[in-house]
Amino acid sequence: MEEEKTYILQVNPQLTFNVNTQIKEQIKWLIGIGQMKSGDMLPTASQLADELGLNRNTVNWVYNQLRDEGLVTIQKGRGTQVSSGCEIKQLLEERKPMQQLLNETISEAASLGFDLQSFFTAGLAYSLLHPPYQTDKPRILLVECRGHDYPFYRQQIEQATDCEVETLFLEDNSLDDDSVREAAMRFDVIITTLNHAEEVKERFARFDSKVIVIGATIETSLLLEIAKLQQGTHVTFVCLGKVGGEWMANRIQEAGITQLHCESVGMSETERLAETFQNSDKIYASAAVFPELSKLLPEKTELYPMRLEKSSENLLHEIASQVKR
Predict the structure, then answer these.
(1) Pairing mode, strands 306-308 and 216-218
(2) Which among 89, 38, 85 is positioned nearest to 285, based on CA atoms?
(3) What pLDDT is stored for residue 14 in this prediction?
(4) Host H or E run for residue 80
(5) Buried residues in 250-287 as b, exposed as e (16+ CB within 10 A)
(6) Residue 1 has what pLDDT?
(7) For 99-143, what is the HEC assignment?
(8) What is the mean pLDDT of the chain?
(9) Closest to 249 in 3D by CA, of 298, 295, 282, 207
(10) What residues have CB less than 8 Å from 98, skipping those under 6 apart?
(11) Confidence label for 216 from pLDDT (cuts 50, 70 and 90)
(12) 216-218 vs 234-239, strand pairing mode
């Protein structure tokens, strides 16, 4: 049995930002400086809530936010586990130099007799008096649903544009006029996928926000591989949600590959997963869920490699050219 690790977290209701954010950012620090490693299990929501004297729903909110940022995976019956994707690598690269700078700052502030909480609160307020660093970079908002492989799209946008990208999930926000107006004011570029193009365009049109639509396709090598499977092979396509799995399966059918028995499932459908996987001869997983599935079912699981359509790459390169001006 794997030895359970102990992590010391704290909450302070007197701070100017809520306890949800306090817990989330502390966990991100533990991951970012390597104290929590890929594969490590986080405490259960009940356990951490009891230790901190909080409501369990507060911890569940934190874990869900960390999952949405690609830092943990949540599986019913197994718990919450630090993931191993590109988001973890990026956090490690970011936090190590940040840790050194903060340690030096904390030491200097303490030597001068400053109260650290007051010092950093004042520092945050002082930063608001200055224009944001690299003001020439557009602020990009990706509007997607949780069911599709949104980490793939976000990563592609970040790599192509070198911009900070935030994600708005359609399930979490009904895109009412107030939320859309706020997004239209905060972000220079609104990007969505072909899956939700009409809905997002309609919502943002009244605020004169241009919506850029990008799409993805799959590698030809995968089509050739799947086309060779025997008649009646039971193939399951897995993404974050069932809608993402259906998108994956549809690309195969559109290519004229019809000899298979295809099924789609999302990692969020915990009650269906076990039975579906047991009946599958082959599992194709999106990049967002592949690390987890390849550990659980290595003999069946293959990566479903996606890439942006050429026209989408061109659109992102246009944004990148704006950054460099």
Answers:
(1) antiparallel
(2) 85
(3) 55
(4) strand 79-82
(5) ebbeeeebeebebbbbbbbeeeebeebbeebebbbbbb
(6) 45
(7) HHHHHHHHHHHHHCCCCHHHHHHHHHHHHCCCCCCCCCCCCEEEE
(8) 86
(9) 282
(10) 32
(11) very high
(12) unpaired
| Domain shared by 158 and 281, yes or no | no
Helix (H, G, I), strand (E, B) or coil at 40: coil
Reduced to 3 states (helix: H, G, I; strand: E, B; else coil), residue 283 is strand
pTM of structure: 0.64
User: Do 172 and 272 fall into the same domain?
Assistant: no
Q: Classify residue 43 by its DSSP letter.
A: P
How does strand 72-75 pair with strand 79-82? antiparallel
Distance between CA 182 and CA 71 in Å, rounded? 27
- Cβ-contact 293, 238 below 8 angstroms: yes
Single-letter amino acid code for the residue at 219: E
**Residue 124 placed within a domain:** yes
Grade residue 130 by pLDDT with cuts at 50, 70 and 90.
low
Q: Is the pLDDT of residue 311 over 90?
A: yes
Q: How far apart are CA 298 and CA 290, in angstroms?
A: 10
75 pLDDT higher than 90 = no
d(CA 266, CA 74): 13
- Helix ranges (H only) for the chain are 19-32, 45-52, 56-68, 86-111, 116-127, 150-161, 177-186, 197-205, 220-227, 242-254, 270-278, 290-296, 310-323
For 277, the token pair is: 């996987």
Task: Give me the pLDDT at residue 33, please.
Answer: 92
By residue range, what is the domain housing residue 256? 218-306
* Distance from C-alpha of 136 to C-alpha of 127, rounded to nearest angstrom: 18
Residues 167 and 254 in one domain: no
Across 123-147, average pLDDT: 76
Q: Are residues 299 and 242 in the same domain?
A: yes
Q: How many whole angstroms separate alpha carbon 28 and alpha carbon 113?
A: 28
> Distances in Å between the alpha carbon of 111 and those of 99, 101, 106, 108?
18, 16, 9, 5
